[in-house]
Amino acid sequence: EADNAYTNRIHREDCAGVLMHLSALSAPESIYNAVDDDPALRSEVISWIAAQKGKTLSAPDFTEQPSGKRVSNRRLKLSGYTFEFPTFREGYRSLL
Question: In 3D, which of 56, 60, 53, 75 has the Cα closest to residue 5?
Answer without folding.
Answer: 60
